[in-house]
Amino acid sequence: MLVQEYFKSRTDLLEAGLKEYLPPRDEYPQSLSEAMNYAVFSGGKRIRPILFFATYEILMGRKNLNRLSRVLPAAVALELVHTASLIHDDLPSMDNSPERRGLPSVHVKYSPATAILAGDALITKAFEVLTEIKNNAHAIKCIEILTSSLSTRGMIGGQAVDLISQNKKININVLKYIHMKKTGALLQAAMEMACALNDAEGNLTITMGNFALNLGLAYQIVDDILDEVGTYEVLGKEPGSDIRSNKATYPSLIGLEKAKKTAEKLLRDCYNHIKNMDGNEVLVEFINQVKERLP
Question: Global pTM?
Fold first, then answer.
């Protein structure tokens, strides 16, 4: 199967799952239901669910779309919590971003209060969806993994450190921590949940988790670079937002060229983690997609 076909078929499966689990747009209270659907169906790349599917199928030993229906709740949950994080990140009290993916942010389209509630509702819906996994032990393990990735030790903690670091001089280790938690933690959860649903042994789970963390950090470094030298068309928002918010970035701390070299090394490390795995084409494509964004 061509990689492009793989991405389309798995994305189509995910879209159907999202429509199944989300409340209809006109469900009461309508403004909340509309905001949830607006955020989820605003053109996201679905990176985390596709990464989850790809990992699950590598471990399963074959690509079989029909077999994925049993693990669809995990993929849906990942996309819901990711979308919630974007809604909250864009709020005036956080990053104060008026646009997301070339569209008005949820708090602009509706209101800041509705945006907060929509994000909260998507997170709680994610855990409700995970209870649909038929194997109870697998469901509990996925809930544990996702909870940890969102916690003060994960994405929320990374966001908190990001906020308190604004307008301050921080070192590269603090910035790495922010990126690993804000971006890497949920990617890591995607691959670890796939491992849990396959009852993978511990060393393999660690390898997949390290792939995800390296990929997430590389992606965020490239984002830092693009915020400095990219375009609106590439970013989906105006470049220079980090500078305007007085945020530290990899280019500002170590220079543009060293930032590029750091991202390139992380992507090489990603490849080394999975180069000997059968059926790794989709994971290699994820690496290539990040590499292609490097200006």
Answer: 0.92
Query: What's residue 63's pLDDT?
Result: 79
Which residue from 219, 213, 221, 220 is spatially nearest to 192, judged by alpha carbons? 213
C-alpha 110/C-alpha 250 separation (Å) is 34
Mean pLDDT of 79-102: 94
DSSP lists the bridge partners of residue 99 as: 104
> Domain residue spans in the chain?
3-286
- What's the pLDDT at 228? 81
What is the dihedral angle through the alpha carbons of 152, 158, 162, 168, rounded to the nearest 10 degrees? 80
**Cβ contacts of 138 within 8 Å, gap of 6 or more:** 196, 197
170, 159, 158, 182: which is closest to 253 by C-alpha? 170
pLDDT band with cut points at 50, 70 and 90 for residue 194: very high
CA distance 191 to 49: 9
CATH superfamily of the 3-286 domain: Farnesyl Diphosphate Synthase (1.10.600.10)
Helix axes 47-60, 72-89, angle to 10 degrees: 150
End-to-end Cα, the chain, rounded Å:
30
Please tell me whether residue 103 adopts helix, strand or coil conformation: strand
Label residue 65 by pLDDT band (50, 70, 90): confident
